[in-house]
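Researcher: I'd like a structural prediction for the single chain below. Treat it as a standalone chain; there are no partners to consider.
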Amino acid sequence: MFSPQGPTARELAAQALTSVERGYDLLAPTFDHTPFRTPDVVLEATARALDGLGPFDDALDLCCGTGAGFAALRAAGARRVVGVDRSAGMLAVAAGADPGATLVRADARVLPFRAGFDLAVSFGAFGHFLADDRRALFAGARAALRPGGLLAFPVAAPPRVGSAAYWLTWGFDAAMRVRNALWHPPFVMYYRTFPLSVARAEAAAAGFSVGTVPLPLPGLPGRPDGAPRCRLLLARRPPDADRAPAGGVPGRRGGTRVP
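Model: Treating it as a single chain, here is the predicted structure.
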């Protein structure tokens, strides 16, 4: 499951007993060698699906982690890439992923941007947010986009009921809930709380026009029922939305730029 360059079981246990922010600071040097990183096949498929939906001159990666998604944004045509994350450790690694990217340390629930982007993406981060937090995240993403701008993120199909992956995700979420009931600060990381139906409903409630496209994932086995293994949710800010002043980082509200 983990490569030899990945974290040890002891390191993962230490991470899980801290906060989300501190945990990812600890995990950052080895994160790209864990199964928690979004696979390149998903990132590349996202870039292909975004082709032709732009132009995307200015792109934002929400909860960018180690910057794995930056290449997908460049492939989609972005000339300016901005990555936001709460973890200083993850941003330190992301600085090497794309030296031309601007990195901002900030809470994704309180984004320091107004109408500055044509595209916003997020890869694998929504399990770290409870429902109330996601409402703030979607509202902030909508505000960060220009009218007509696009929020896009992949949503994996749930595991087949009764499969090994099904019981693994159930067990992981149950263990995380027990941990959070007994230990503080909480470490929010739930894999089962953000299916496609919830993603669509919450994006629509935030004022987006919502659609999806199936992602072709070469090299991965298809689902037995023929359904796509992953869909790309496309949430567009309506072009007639109330306009905010265009720009990059005005009204920062506590964000810290990382050189």
